[in-house]
Every structure is written in structure tokens, then in C-alpha cells.
Amino acid sequence: xxxxxxxxxxxxxxxxxxxxxxxxxxxxxxxxxxxxxxxxxxxxxxxxxxxxxxxxxxxxxxxxxxxxxxxxxxxxxxxxxxxxxxxxxxxxxxxxxxxxxxxxxxxxxxxxxxxxxxxxxxxxxxxxxxxxxxxxxxxxxxxxxxxxxxxxxxxx
Length: 156
Ligand code: 4NP
What we know:
The chain has helices at about 15-30, 55-60, 80, 90-100, 130-155; strands at about 1-10, 35-40, 85, 110. It is an alpha/beta fold.
């Protein structure tokens, strides 16, 4: 079984959205039992909280249910447990590099590296912006998650 962890700053907007989108893709493809999916934040400010209501509303409009997700912070064990740790932006990626234990071969990437058609590297933080930010987040994440699925299907 492969395991994928999506990571952003607060784990209430972008990474839970990615978790919900990728779960739906895996369900569609009959791969729910084959690929483990989770999300976490580099920060702990929102620990235990459900996703931001704006993220939930935008996701729900496209058929994704984020309501059972609760925010948690990245922990050392994640760097061992997950085959893919996918950061939403370069600040998240740098934070993950700093958190990765010395003796672990951490498999860190930007999520958008998995979308060959992406015109940007980063999923922008929507927290302080308007509702259109959450649509941008969904558009970017949907594209990258299909690319991620294609990569996971390649034997390695
Ligand atoms: P996220 O968005 O990293 O996509 O979950 C944010 C959520 C909360 C904060 C910043 C970004 N915050 O500063 O509390």
C-alpha cells in the first residue's frame, strides 16, 4: 500500500481539500483500500478543528465532503509512514525539510509537481482572501491529484 500525506500551514484549507479530492478520486478508481491518504499542517494553531467553512462549502459544491477531517500537525512518524509528503507551497516544503529527522529519507515534493500542465508551482493560501481563492485551490488540486494518481499507477 502507498501512503500520501498532503501538507499545508494550518491543515484547515488547502491540505484537507486535497485529502477530500484525492479520496474521491481513489473511490472513483476503486483504490480506496490500496492507497492511504491523510493531511496535516506544519503549524498547530487549528489542531482538532474541522476544515474552514469556506473550504467545506467550496468543496461541497463539487461533491467533496471534508466534514470528518480534523486538523493535526505533522509529527516525526509521518516522515517514516508516508511514501509521498506533498506540500502546497514552497514555505511548507522548506518547513518540512527542516522537520524531517536526520536519519530518514524524506520523500518531499510540491503537490503541483505532479501536474504536468500546471502553470504555477504553488497552491496559494486562501485563508485571508475571498471565496474565489477557494475555487483556485480546488482547480489546482483537482489537476494535480489526477497527475498524482497517474504517477502512483506507474509500477515502481
Ligand atoms: P491552510 O490555510 O494552510 O491552507 O490551512 C491557512 C489556515 C490558517 C492560517 C493560515 C493559512 N492561519 O494563519 O491561521
